[in-house]
Amino acid sequence: MKDRKLLMIPGPIEFTPEVLRAMGMPTTSHVAPNFIEVFGQALERLRQVFLSSSGQPFIVAGSGTLAMDIAAANLVEPGDKALVVDTGYFSERFTAILERYGATVTPVRAPVVGDAPSLEDVEAELKKDGYKLMTVTHVDTSTAVRADVKALTALGRKYGALVVVDGVCAVAGEEMRQDEWGIDLALTASQKAIGTPPGLALVVAGPRAMEAFRKRKTPVGNYYADWTNWLPIMEAYEARRPSYFGTPAVNLIWALNVSLGQILEEGMEARFARHRKLNEAFKAAIRALGLKQVPVSSDREATTLTAPYYPDGVDSTVLKRINEAGVILAGGLHPAIKDRYFRVGHMGAVSASDILTTVGAIEKGLAQAGYKFEPGAGLAAAQAILTG
Ligand code: PMP
């Protein structure tokens, strides 16, 4: 019997065999002609996945937090004002990072956990002060709340703020159109919907962000993150020339290029549609099982992730039972409700059969935990959408 479990957490996700094979290839020199071609292609493909023909891509070894650090370090100067659209744990991390570089940060918070601040509240704050920068967490992985990036970006731009989108749990899963929506900088990490093992920070900076960087009066307060070091490297590899600042993560970049190729082969529109359908099926199952979710309303729900509350009488020990039934899920993360909910990631290469397997394992775990429901109700609800 197979003993491999299905990994359905909000990153790292399950990777395709082709991506994993690239990880295991003999490592080449970072200036070998075949690697230069791969790095150059990965930069070009990153632009296409972010739907940004005008952006400058950066691929740097590190996790998503480094991508946030890169954005803040290069765009913020001491004394700048920043507005953080605060939807939870990862928005608060952005506040801490921005403050570290000397920004004065104003968070605009949601009234309750599971909600996002209203457009009116964000606009009222933008009006008050001259904000240089505004950050939005596309999907807050702690709550599965999705922010309305399109509308928020339009607002930020209206008041002259640079709009930075933390798309770590979103890019290549949630619909995001960097150029069309006017996003100045979007960032993600390799291990989520981009579909490559953890270890790469991915940033696409638009023309206004690059201009703000060029016009800095003070040096970037972080040596490793400084675009002064990385921009020539990215430009060189894209022009298919070798260059060196810090040794690139050769195998990860190779794997990233394979994954980006797979994403573009599927096509961005088809990919957004697949994520929407699988999400709809999974959420229908969760509702059919009588489980409530952390997001307060359906228009706040992410596409890449679901955060259901445990039903009455069930606690986090059910995750162990679900694991024994073959599926690995994540516990709660938001400190205020940590022990009351769990999280299921469904992004990247996820398939309809992964959704059904996950629902089946959740049903098994809930039944063993003594929760009363009609067996198969979740599976039937998911299947109705998947076959519809
Ligand atoms: N932002 C969001 C929205 C995230 O979900 C995460 C990771 N879960 C991060 C930032 C930080 O990324 P990393 O863990 O790769 O540093």
Protein described:
The protein contains 14 helices and 14 strands. The protein has 388 residues and is α/β, with parallel strands linked by helices. It folds into two domains: 6-12 and 268-386, Aspartate Aminotransferase, domain 1 (Alpha-Beta Complex), CATH 3.90.1150.10; 17-266, Aspartate Aminotransferase, domain 2 (3-Layer(aba) Sandwich), CATH 3.40.640. Strands 2-10-9-8-5-3-4 form a seven-stranded mixed sheet, with helices on both faces. A three-stranded antiparallel sheet has the order 11-14-13, covered by helices on one side. α4 (89-100) links the parallel β3 (81-86) and β4. α1 packs antiparallel against α10 (250-266), α2 crosses α9 (227-238) and α11 (268-288) runs antiparallel to α14. The protein starts with 5 loop residues before the first strand and ends with a helix. The mean pLDDT is 97. 4'-deoxy-4'-aminopyridoxal-5'-phosphate (PMP) is lined by residues 11, 63-65, 90, 137, 140-141, 166, 168-169, 189. Residues 11, 63-65, 90, 137, 140-141, 166, 168-169, 189 line the site of 4'-deoxy-4'-aminopyridoxal-5'-phosphate.
